Amino acid sequence: MNMKRIFAIAAAAVALAASLSSCVQDKVYGLPTITDINNTVAVSASDEVVVTATVASLTGISYVNLLWAADGGSWTTVEMQAAGDSWSGVIPAQPLDTEVSYYIEAASEGGETAVSATVSYVVGAAVIDYSGLRLNELNGNDKFIEIYNASGEDIPLSGIC
Fold first, then answer.
1. What are the E-state strand segments in 32-143?
2. How far apart are CA 1 and CA 128, in angstroms?
3. Which stretch of DSSP H or E encloses residue 11?
4. Which of 9, 45, 79, 149 is 20 to 30 A from 130, alpha carbon to alpha carbon?
5. pLDDT at 44 over 70
6. Mean pLDDT score, 56-83
7. What is the mean pLDDT of residues 59-76?
């Protein structure tokens, strides 16, 4: 092999190595995830409601806000506080029979934002105890289930999915 050809191959290899080392680094996408949304129950008009959620992102969290509205009114923003990946915010006490809706908005340090589904509750609504329900029969062929109420009290099933 002649010297010019060896030199050309070596020069091409060096150029290729240099171009590979100067590649653009992929951006880390840190879309926040909002999971495990829970709230305390407002049994009376004096009960504030604490909303908690797990919020995380690969790039870190910039902020998490709780947005709530009473009876379809305007949205109020509450800055949520962090304890690790667990975030909490408080909806102030509302009058009995007020329907309160809320959702959570989070932003990552990378600028990506996410919004949770909207959750609703009614102040003073009776909490239903479903612990007496038992799966009694399951039929995959005819596509039905039978649920047995072992509690002895009526348990409303509307709204259960």
1. 33-39, 49-56, 61-70, 76-79, 81-83, 86-91, 99-108, 113-115, 119-122, 133-139
2. 87
3. helix 3-21
4. 45
5. yes
6. 96
7. 96
- Report the C-alpha gap between 62 and 106 in whole angstroms: 8
Strands 99-108 and 86-91: unpaired
Give the whole-angstrom CA distance, residue 55 versus residue 72. 26
Q: Are 88 and 50 in contact (CB under 8 A)?
A: yes
Long-range contact pairs involving 76-81 (C-beta distance under 8 Å, separation at least 24): 80/51, 80/53, 80/55, 80/104
Q: Which residue has the higher pLDDT, 25 or 60?
A: 60
At residue 5, the 3 state secondary structure works out as: helix
Task: Map tokens 């191959």 to a residue.
Answer: 9
CB-based contacts of 85, cutoff 8 Å, min separation 6: 54, 55, 56
Model pTM above 0.85: no
Query: What distance in Å separates the CA atoms of residue 98 and residue 103, rounded to the nearest whole number?
Result: 17
Q: Count of residues for the chain? A: 161
**Cβ proximity of 41 and 12 under 8 Å:** no
Amino acid in position 91: I
The answer to whether residues 107 and 101 touch, using CB atoms and an 8 Å cutoff, is no
pLDDT of 103 reads 97
> Which structure tokens are listed for 124?
């003073």
Q: How far apart are CA 50 and CA 89, in angstroms?
A: 6
